[in-house]
Write a structure and sequence with these properties.
CATH class: Alpha Beta
Shape: globular
Helix content: 40-55%
Strand order of the largest sheet: 3-2-1-4
Length: about 120
């Protein structure tokens, strides 16, 4: 039986999550991309809580008339700034089963430019 695209992505996601786990010092930067939006969270898996989050649905980003890649850059910048405020310097990047290009890559590059190490 053939798998759907979503099922294949879930398999890749589970494989990634076997090796990546966030702690209080180096949380996991989890990224989710839907057709219209992109979301990023810093997650402490040991405590089971989200430290900070950012998405393209936030008012400052959503009001702008720009394309999705540029919105992803703004989300990466925003998550980097919020991480600095929370005292986080390094993270483990969890691409969530998505290929590392396009919106995922632009978010990661923008987060690196704000000073996050991963």
């Amino acid at each position: 039986m053939t798998q759907s695209r979503k099922d294949k992505r879930q398999g890749v996601r589970y494989r990634i999550r076997k090796t990546i786990s966030g702690t209080g010092e180096t949380p996991r930067l989890a990224v989710f991309r839907s057709n219209k939006q992109i979301y990023a969270q810093l997650i402490d898996d040991v405590a089971g809580r989200t430290i900070v989050s950012a998405s393209s649905r936030e008012k400052s980003i959503d009001e702008q008339k720009i394309n999705k890649i540029e919105k992803a850059k703004l989300v990466g910048t925003l998550i980097g700034e919020k991480a600095k405020e929370a005292g986080v310097k390094s993270v483990k990047f969890d691409r969530g089963g998505f290929l590392y290009h396009g919106r995922i890559k632009s978010l990661a590059d923008a987060a690196r430019e704000t000073g996050l190490k991963f």
